[in-house]
Specification:
This protein has 81 residues and is mostly helical. Helices cover 79% and strands 0% of the residues.
Length: 81
């Protein structure tokens, strides 16, 4: 739940307050995926499992968040591809 929340706040802030600043969208996407992986790294499971889950999680989170961003921008701002 953390990556979509971070992206939603970022998208609302940059599109509404900063008037469509889109240069840092990729950085926000990566940061949200890393925050999600960081929450996995503090999970109460064995270290090899945490590391493996984090490695698998990051690319999957980036792909899921990419589609989330496209849908969010389309639904909220009407700026569809």
């Amino acid at each position: 739940m953390l990556p979509p929340a971070v992206l939603s706040v970022y998208l609302l802030f940059t599109r509404l307050i900063l008037d469509r600043v889109m240069e840092f969208d990729v950085i926000a996407l990566a940061l949200s995926a890393v925050l999600g992986a960081a929450s996995l790294l503090i999970a109460p499971i064995r270290r090899p499992w945490r590391t493996a889950l984090a490695i698998v999680y990051v690319p999957l989170a980036v792909i899921a968040c990419f589609w989330f961003v496209l849908g969010f921008v389309c639904a909220t701002f009407g700026d569809c591809l």
